[in-house]
Every structure is written in C-alpha cells, then in structure tokens.
Specification:
- This protein is α+β, with helices and mostly antiparallel strands and 504 residues long.
- It folds into 3 domains: 287 residues, ABC transporter involved in vitamin B12 uptake, BtuC (Orthogonal Bundle); 57 residues, Orthogonal Bundle (Arc Repressor Mutant, subunit A), CATH 1.10.10; 72 residues, Ferrous iron transport protein A (FeoA) (SH3 type barrels, Roll), CATH 2.30.30.
- Helices cover 65% and strands 9% of the residues.
- It has 20 helices and 9 strands.
- Strands 4-9-5-6-7-8 form a 6-stranded antiparallel beta sheet. Strands 1-3-2 form a 3-stranded antiparallel beta sheet.
- The longest helix has 40 residues.
- The chain is elongated, with a radius of gyration of 35 Å.
Length: 504
C-alpha cells in the first residue's frame, strides 16, 4: 500500500493532495448542506458564497496594510466569516424593517456585497493579488499545504459541532417554536450554523469556485433528501453522494481535460436528476406509478353509496355500472382497492360491506343527506337537491359535517323524509358531548350546565333522551335526580347544546 502511494505521488504529485482536499471539502459540504436543504435556506447559502469575496479582500487588505505582507488562509477565513455574518444580519434587519420579502432582500444584499468586493479589488489592485479566475472556477489542483490544513481544521470543527449539537440542531431545523419553548437559544444556534456554513463555503470555493460552491452544498443533500426520511440517515447518504460525485467528476475532468470544479458539480447534478427519476418513494417514476394505481376518491364514494342503497346492502357489477356511469375496468380497479382496504367483500359476483366499509358508507350517506337539508334551507329547487348534494357529499371531513349538522339543528330526516344517520363517530360510552347530538334511546350523566338553562338541573343527574317534538325542533328528555325523582323536560336546540352529558 505504501509503495503504491509513493508511486502514485511520484507519477502524479498533485493527485493525492487533490483527492484528500476534495474528500474533506465534499464531506463537510454534504453534511452541512442537509441542514440548509431542510431549513429551505439554499438561496441564503448562495448569498454567503458571493459575500465571501468582500471578506477575502478586506482580510487581504488588513494584512497587507497592517503587517506589510500577503494574507494567509486564516486571515481570509476570518474575513469571510465576518462578511457572511454581516450579510445574514443585514438580510434579517431589512426583511423585518421593510415590506420587501426575504428572497428579494437576499438577492439585493448578496449581489451588492459581491459587487462591493469587486470594487475593492479594483480600487486596491496594487495591494490585493487575488486570482479572480480561480476564485470563480476553483483551483483544486493548486491547493497549497496551508490551505489543505485550513480545510482539515474547518472539517473537524464543523463536524464536531454537528455531532455535539445534533439534538438541538435537529429540533431547531424541524420545529423552531418547540425549540424556543424548551429554552433553546434559537437565534444563537442559527448564527452558529451560519458561521459553520461560511467556513464551509470558504473551503468549498478552493475546490469548485464561488459560482458552483452552492451546488457542492445543496446537490448531495437534496439527493439524499429524496431517499431518506430520517436526518441521521440523510447525513451519511449525503456524504456518500458527495464522495462519489467528487471522485467521478475529478477523474472525468482528468480524462476530458476540463476544469475539475465544473465537472464535479455536473456529476453531482446528474446524480440528483437520476435519483429524482428512480427514487423508490419520492421519485418521478414512483409518483407516476402511484398515479396509475390510484383510484379517485369520488369513484370509491360513489360505489359505496350504490351498495348502501342496494337491497340488503348487496349488489353486482351490472348494478354498479348502471348507477355510477363508470366504465367496467374503473369500477373493478376501485373494488380491488377497497377489498385490499377490507371495506368490501366480493364473493360469487356479489359485492357486500365489511364492518369498516359500512362505517365509511354511512359517513358518506350522512354527509349527503345533511347537504341536501342544507341546500333546501338555501332555497335550492327540490329536483336539484340530489345532484348538487352528490357533488358536495365528497366534502365529508368529520369536523365540517359536524358543524353543518349543528347549524341545521341536528335534523333527523332529509328533505325526502329519509333518516339522516346519527353522529356515530362520537357516540362512544364515556365520551362527553352536548345533549343536542343525542337521539332517542341514548342516556348519560350531566357533567356541565350552561347559563341558558333555567330548569332545576344539577351536575350528576341522569338523563334519558326521548323522541323529538315540534317538527324535531324540541328535545324531550327525562331527568332523574339524586333522590330518584324523574321529570320530563322540553329543550330547544340552544338549550340542549348548553348541557354536556357523559354517555353511558
């Protein structure tokens, strides 16, 4: 192994240093890039990369004017970090103090600070000796020992920070509000992460240049994001994509005799596009397959409605085709989906409900008949009620339907005289609900009484709900007090809503 390394170093003296430099930079860029992608601050990373020019020039000038010699890598690193922090602070300040949105502020600030760096280079050209070409496209093959050591130190510092602060960074990345509520200094963590990003950008510029360093930060992390659902896995997968992108890009640049920095970013982009196409869960092909297999919810609900209204809640394919106007293959696709979900049973050409399927169908029927009742209240013509309700019934979110039921005064029947299924989702023993929801046969114990009630009721009294009177607008309730005395009461909707009962 040693002899091979010596031979490689002798024949290609730049190779080992270039590989070591590239692997260090891609590792740290790929890892810190995961937080940038998850926090959706990729444009901010671009701003840091461009603002670096001003920091490098100022660091160079200070060293030249103060000590009379060219700046070393450490001075440029410090200048770049300070420039990056100033950029972030200015973006935050202007965003908060003006009506201009943050993305526009970032665009203004990073181009302005980058241009300011260019102005400084022009004004102090006799002092500043920066190779702008290499600054833009990178100089992987010309990295000095001093800069290599700087990269190694930056890599160790950044990776150590991520390992030590992983839990805090994870929480701040996904839920800043919870992190703040737990006493974490979210602003300080943001600035520490920004500092690390600025350090990583400085090292990345040495490899691929300021224009493409954002690709080195974002592409491996975005590729890993398409494959991973956990941050820990995303970090190492991103690093692997960074390594492969660097190695393939470097050797391609050698064989094609092109700039290595540009080729590395091209390969990283190609990796992302490939994974975007073939990723098993979030890829384009997987999404296309899901759409092919997907059955529109409206088709499923229409089929459930037909079976629910059929004799003995059973029917065949011919009846489904006749009542839904869907083609045979589409109905079969929907039936297969519902059989897999255990909503339907399909035996001997007869389709029937399972218990779960019956619940889903009753939920749909309840929504349909409540919508018909609501539309009647709005004055819709009776011959249009069914068709319009058929469209609206697919809006059967439980909270929305419960709200509609309450606004209508919990009706018992629809405009055609058919019974509206009761709110079976919440009718569970021990559940607390308003008396207005309960229908004849339910019983429970009073747990709270609203101010509207003038009757002599008490918490703890037993209630038994009877039938409705006055066109279903009056609740008849038998109340049994602690002494065993039973009394019948008549409540309107508002009064029944003011009494909360724990179901037996």
């Amino acid at each position: 192994m040693y002899e091979w390394i010596v031979e490689v170093h002798t024949t290609s003296p730049h190779l080992i240093k270039a590989l070591l430099t590239g692997l260090l930079v891609t590792t740290v860029c790929s890892v810190i890039g995961c937080f940038i992608v998850l926090k959706k601050t990729s444009f901010l990373a671009d701003a840091l990369a461009h603002s670096m020019l001003a920091g490098v020039v100022v660091g160079y000038l200070l060293m030249k004017i103060t000590y009379g010699r060219d700046a070393h890598a450490g001075a440029m690193l410090i200048g770049s970090i300070i420039s990056g922090l100033i950029t972030v602070a200015m973006i935050g300040f202007v965003s908060r103090m003006s009506r201009v949105k943050e993305d526009a502020v970032i665009g203004i600030m990073y181009t302005g600070i980058f241009a300011f760096g260019g102005v400084l280079v022009s004004l102090f050209s006799e002092y500043v000796h920066i190779d702008l070409l290499h600054f833009i496209v990178g100089q992987l093959l010309g990295v000095s020992d001093e800069k290599l050591w700087m990269m190694a130190i930056v890599a160790v510092v950044v990776l150590a920070f991520i390992v030590l602060m992983f839990r805090s960074l994870q929480l701040v990345t996904f839920d800043r509000v919870m992190a703040a509520s737990l006493g974490m200094n979210v602003i300080l963590l943001d600035y520490m992460l920004t500092t690390c990003t600025a350090m990583v950008v400085v090292t990345g510029v040495q490899v691929v240049g300021v224009i493409q360093v954002v690709g080195l930060l974002i592409a491996p992390a975005a590729t890993a994001y398409l494959l991973c659902d956990r941050l820990k896995n995303m970090l190492w997968v991103s690093a692997v994509f960074g390594w492969t992108g660097f190695l393939i890009g470097y050797f391609l640049s050698e064989s094609l005799n092109v700039a290595p920095g540009a080729m590395i970013v091209v390969v990283l982009t190609a990796q992302f596009l490939t994974v975007f196409l073939v990723a098993p869960r979030y890829g384009l092909l997987a999404d296309f397959q899901r759409k092919l297999r997907a059955v529109p919810q409206q088709v499923i609900e229409d089929i459930l409605g037909v079976i629910l209204r059929a004799e003995n809640e059973q029917c065949g394919m011919e009846e489904l085709v006749r009542h839904t106007d869907y083609k045979n293959d589409r109905i079969r696709k929907a039936l297969n989906s519902m059989v897999k979900q255990e909503w339907l049973e399909f035996e001997g050409g007869v389709i029937s409900f399972t218990e779960e399927g019956r619940i889903q169908a009753r939920r749909l029927l309840r929504a349909h008949r409540l919508w018909e009742t609501y539309l009647q209240h709005l004055g819709v013509a009776e011959d249009e009620l069914h068709q319009r309700a058929h469209v609206l019934e697919h809006l059967h979110d439980e909270e929305a339907v419960d709200y509609l039921d309450d606004k209508l005064g919990h009706p018992l029947t629809d405009p055609h005289g058919k019974e509206i299924p009761e709110d079976f989702e919440h009718l569970v023993p021990g559940e607390i609900m308003t008396l207005a929801i309960l229908r004849e046969g339910h019983s429970g114990q009073i747990v709270s009484i609203g101010e509207l009630i003038v009757e002599p009721l008490a918490v703890g009294d037993k209630v038994a709900v009877g039938g409705r009177e006055n066109d279903s607008r009056t609740w008849v309730v038998t109340v049994t007090d602690a002494d065993g005395k039973s009394t019948d009461y008549h409540f309107n909707h508002n009064e029944a809503d003011a009494i909360c009962v724990r179901l037996d």
